[in-house]
Amino acid sequence: MASKSLKLCRALCNNTQHGRNIFLALSASRASQRIQRRLFSNDPQPDLVDPPSTSPSEKPQSHDTRRNEGGAGRRPFSSSLNDVELAKFSAIAETWWDPVGPFKPLHAMNPTRVSFIRSALCRHFRKDPSSAKPFEGLRIVDVGCGGGILSEPLARMGATVVGIDAVEKNTKIARLHAELDPVTSSIEYCCTTAEKLVEEQRKFDAVIALEVIEHVADPAEFCKSLAALTDTNGATVISTINRSMRSYATAIVAAEYLLHWLPRGTHQWSSFLTPEELVLILQRASISVQEIAGFVYNPLTGRWALSDDLSVNFIAFGTKNMNSQ
Amino acid sequence: MYRTTVRKIASNYNTLRVPKRTLSNDASAGISSTNSAKFNSALLACSTFQEDEKLGMRNMIGQYDIAIVGGGMVGIAFACALSSMPLTKQLKVAIIDSNPALGRRDCIEKTDLPDPRVSTVTPATISFFKDVGAWDYVQQNRHAFFDKMQVWDYTGLGYTRYNARDVGKEILGCVVENKVLHASLLSCLQKSDFHKTIYPSRLTSMALQSHSKEVESKLPGAKLCDHGSFVKLDLSNGDSLFAKLVVGADGAKSYVRELAGLKTTGWNYSQNAIICTVEHNVENQCAWQRFLPTGPIALLPIGDRFSNIVWTMSPKESSERKTMNEDDFVKAVNHALDYGYGPHPQSSSVSNYGDRLSWLIADMTSSSKECFEVPPKVVKIASERMVFPLSLLHSNDYASNRVVLIGDAAHTVHPLAGQGVNLGFGDATVLSKVISDGISIGSDIGEISLLRKFEAERKPANIMMMALLDGFQKAYTVDFGPLNVLRAAAFHAAQFITPLKKNIISYATGEQKWPLFS
Ligand SMILES: Cc1cc2nc3c(=O)[nH]c(=O)nc-3n(C[C@H](O)[C@H](O)[C@H](O)COP(=O)(O)OP(=O)(O)OC[C@H]3O[C@@H](n4cnc5c(N)ncnc54)[C@H](O)[C@@H]3O)c2cc1C
Ligand SMILES: C[S@@+](CC[C@H](N)C(=O)[O-])C[C@H]1O[C@@H](n2cnc3c(N)ncnc32)[C@H](O)[C@@H]1O
Fold it and tell me: Which end of chain B is more exposed for a tag (fewer CB within 10 A), N or C?
C-alpha cells in the first residue's frame, strides 16, 4: 500500500510543478502507515474509523467523544458536522466582515487564494483570463462559505454562486452583506451541508471548500461529498492547514495565543491534514489533484503570497476523473 | 474606535439611529465646527435620498463604478489609464468638473504663443502617454526634448552637467505645455469607446451610504456598517450620482480630501515663483538651472525659439518683477542666468574639488569633462508673467473608505523641478493597475484594503520626491558661507561620482523608486 501511494505521488509529480513538495513531504513524514490507518477506511460510518489510540500523535480523546455525540445515527446525511467546531463559528459570526476581527487572516489571504483559483479555473475551463468576468457561465458552490468572503469575489468574476454553511448565522450575515452590492446580491446562500446537496443531486462546475476540511468530522467522507457535487470534467478546490510543526507554531501558537488573531481553540492541530493525505483522500473520491501551492505570510507587508512551501497553509486544485459517475 | 461610537449612539437612541455617515476617518475625531456643519448637511442629504428611494426614484440617479472628481491633467490621465486596460475598460465612470475645456474638442493652434504653464515630462510619463495612446497627439503639437541639463550656482564654486548618455538614454525629459498634455489625454479619451459620463459641475457634498440601520434590525451586533457600498455625490447644478469609489483628482485645494476628513501636512515657503514664456534668437536644447541667493531660476526649452522661465524669489521681489517693464525684466533674466550675483564656475576649481574628492570618484563619465556653458540670451518676453506662492502640501493618508486621492489633491510640490504632474501621472498609473488587479480577483473596488495598496506604493515615492525638493529649497535659500562650500562639494560629487549621478538622473526621470536605498 505504501509503495502504491508513493507511485501515486510520483505520477502526480509529473502532472504538477509543485509535485516535488508532495513527494518530499511524503518521504519526510514517513507517515504512510499512519495515513492508511487514519484515512483509508472505505467505511462511510464515522464511528467505525480506527480509534485514535492506535497512533499516539493522533486526535485527543475528547475529539472522538464529540464525534460520537454528534452521532452518525442521529444525522445520517450530515456525517461531516462537528458540533463543537460549529459552535465556535456561531459564537463569532457577527465579526465575519470586520477587517480587523477574528477573520482578519482570511481577509488577508483572500487575494492570494482567489488568484490561485482564477488561474486554475481559467486554464481548466479555457476561460479568457483577461476578461473582467472570466467565470461567466460557471456554476460554483462555496462549501462552508462563512460570511461569504470567497463567494463575493467569485460572483464579481461572473460565476453563478451558491454559498452553503452549516451555521445559519453565517449564511444570514453573508446574505445581508451580499445585498449591499447589486453584483453580489445574486448569490444564493443556504444553510445546509454538502451531503444534503448531494442528496438533492445538485451538480456544479466547480466545488470549492476553503479552510473547512480541518473543521469537519470526517474529511474523507467530506471529500466524497465534494466529489459527488462536482460535475463530470468539473473542478474541486480545497485549502487547509498542514499538520506540521511549523503549522503548529504559526497557526496555533502565533495566531491563537500570541497575536490573538483567532480565538483560542479555533484549530485542533491533530485534525489537520498533510498535503499527501489530502491528495490521497481526494484520489479515493475520484478527484485527481493537478496542482498544489502553499501560502506564505510576509510579516513586513502583512500580505500573503503563493509559494512552493506547503508547510503551513496550502491549496489544492483537482479535477474529477472522467470514468467516475 | 469610530465604529464603537456609532454603535453606541445607535443603541442609546433607538429612534435616532444614524443611517448614514459622512466619510471620515478616525483622525478626524477632533471635528471642527465647519466639519460638523458639513456632517449635518450631509445627513440631510442622506435623508432626502431615503425619500427618493421610497418614491422609487433611485434608478433615475446615475450609478457608477468610479466617480472622478476633477478633470485636470491627472483626473483625465486616470480615466485614460482605465480605458486602456482590458479589466478596467468596462467600468462605468463619471467625471465631474466644471472646466469648459472638458466639453469642447480643443484645437490647439501650433502658431499660438506657448502658454507659461508647462511641465517637464519624464521618460516614465512619456511611456505612460504612449501606453494610453496620447503621445501621438503631443508630438503633433509643440514640445521640446532635451538631453542635457546644467545646474550651477552663483558662488562660482561648482557646476554639474547631466547628459542622457550617462544613463544610456536618448533624452532626459521633454517640456510640454500643460494645455497640450490635457488636450491630448482628453482627445484620446474621447476617441475610446470607454463608458464615461462628464458632469459639467462641481462637487458640493458627499456621503457614504451605510446600511447599518437595516442590518442592526435584522441581525443585532453585526459589523457591516463600514461597508455601505455606494457613496452619494451631490453637485452644484442639483445633479446627484452614486459611485462605488470616489477618486479625488481635484487639485491642491481638494474638496474631496476635506469632505473625507483626510488631514494634511504642509507649509508655505514665503517665496513666490514667477513663470513666463521667453524668446531667444536660437533654439534652446538644454535645461538650465542656476541657484541664486534668493532661490533658483530655471530656463526650460519649450520648442521653436521659446523657453519657459520659473524664477523663485521673495514675495516683494516677485511683485516688483511682475510689474517692471518688459525690457528691464529681460535684462534681469539675462543677468540672473549669466554673471549676475557671482562669477561663472572656474574649471580650475573643478579639478581642485575633483582631487579632494578623488577617494569618492568612480569611473568618470563623459559629461564630467564637458565644459561649463552660458545659456542662450533671452531677447523677448512672450507671455504674461504669472506669480504664485511656493508651498508644499501632503495628505497624511491617500485613502479612506471608498475615497482615494491622486495628483495635487494628495501632494502639492512647488514647480521647482517641474515634477508636480509627473507624480500625479505616477499615481494615475498605479491606481489604475491596483484597481485592475482588484477586479481580476473579484474585489470590491472601493474596499479600503485595496486602496491601501495604492497608498503603500505611491506614498514613499512621493514623499521622497517632496523631501528632495524641500531639501533643495532649504539648501538654496540660505546664504551661509560654509554651506556654499558644502553645496559646491555636493555639485562636484554629483558631477564625478557616476553611480550617484545615475541615481539622481534615473530618479529625476521617474524610473526609480528608492534612490537612497537601492
Ligand atoms: C500657476 C501654476 C503653475 C504651475 N506650474 C507648473 C510647472 O511649471 N510645472 C509643473 O510640473 N507643475 C506646475 N504646476 C503644478 C501642476 O499644475 C499640477 O501639479 C498639476 O496641474 C496637477 O494636476 P491635477 O490634475 O492633480 O490638479 P489640477 O490641475 O489642479 O486640476 C484639478 C481639477 O479639479 C477641478 N475641481 C476642483 N474642485 C472641484 C470640485 N469641487 N468639483 C469638481 N471639480 C473640481 C478643477 O476645475 C480642475 O480642473 C503649476 C501649478 C499652478 C497653480
Ligand atoms: C474557517 S471558516 C472558512 C470560511 C470560508 N470558506 C472562507 O474561507 O472564507 C469554516 C467555515 O466552515 C463551516 N463549516 C464547518 N463544518 C462544516 C460542514 N460540515 N458543512 C458546512 N460548513 C461547515 C463553518 O461554519 C465556517 O463558517
Answer: N
Is residue B19 a part of any domain in this protein? no
Q: Cβ contacts of residue A232 below 8 Å, gap of 6+?
A: A320, A322, A325
Of chain A, the end-to-end C-alpha distance in Å amounts to 25
Amino acid at residue number B93: V
| Interface contact A173-B87, CB threshold 8 A | no
- Separation between Cα atoms, residue A155 and residue B443, nearest integer Å: 10
Q: What is the DSSP letter of A52?
A: G
Residue B34 located in a structural domain = no
> Considering the domain boundaries, does residue B363 fall inside one?
yes
Distance between Cα A127 and ligand 2 center (Å):
28
Q: Which ligand lies nearest the alpha carbon of A143?
A: 2
Does the beta carbon of A296 lie inside 6 Å of ligand 2? no
| B442·A157 Cβ contact <8 A | yes
A215 known ligand binder: yes
In angstroms, rounded to a whole number, what is the distance separating the alpha carbons of residues A244 and A310? 10
Map out the domains of chain A as residue ranges.
78-320
Q: What is the pLDDT along chain B (518 residues), one digit of tens a residue?
A: 333 333 333 333 333 333 333 333 333 333 333 333 333 333 333 333 343 343 334 446 889 999 999 999 999 999 999 999 999 999 999 999 999 888 766 567 777 888 888 888 888 899 999 999 999 999 999 999 988 888 787 777 667 777 777 667 777 788 999 999 999 999 999 888 888 999 999 999 999 876 555 555 565 555 554 446 889 999 999 999 999 999 999 999 999 999 999 999 887 778 888 999 999 999 998 888 887 877 788 898 998 899 999 898 889 999 999 999 999 999 999 999 987 777 777 653 443 333 333 333 333 344 455 678 889 999 999 999 999 888 788 899 999 999 999 999 999 876 655 668 889 999 999 999 999 999 999 999 999 999 999 999 998 878 777 766 666 555 554 443 334 444 444 444 444 434 444 555 555 555 444 333 22
CA distance A39 to A218: 9
**CATH superfamily, domain at A78-320:** Vaccinia Virus protein VP39 (3.40.50.150)
- Grid coordinates representing B60? 433615475
CA end-to-end span of chain B: 38
Long-range contacts, A65-71 (Cβ 8 Å, 24+): A67/A217, A67/A218, A70/A46, A70/A217
Q: Which domain holds residue B115?
A: 62-209+228-509
Residue B439 cell numbers, joined: 477586479
* Total domains, chain B: 1
Residue A95, chain B, CB below 8 Å: the answer is yes
Task: Using the mean position of ligand 2's atoms as its centre, give its distance from the Cα of residue A146 in Å.
Answer: 5
Q: Assess A155–B contact: CB distance below 8 Å, yes or no.
A: yes
Residue A174 distance to chain B (closest CA, Å): 10
Using a 10 angstrom Cβ sphere, with 0-12 exposed, 13-18 middle and 19 or more buried, the burial of residue B253 is: exposed
Could you identify the residue written with the cell 514517513? A30
Task: Consult the annotation and say whether A214 binds a ligand.
Answer: yes
Residue B47 lies in a domain: no
List the beta strands (DSSP E) in chain A.
139-143, 160-165, 188-191, 204-210, 230-241, 287-298, 303-307, 313-320
Tell me the CA–centroid distance for residue B178 and ligand 1, in Å: 9
CB contact under 8 A, B227 and A177: yes
A63 among annotated binding-site residues: no
Query: What pTM was computed for the model?
Result: 0.77
Closest CA to B258 of B66, B388, B393, B71: B393
A168 in contact with B, Cβ within 8 Å: no
Q: Are B103 and B198 in contact (CB under 8 A)?
A: yes
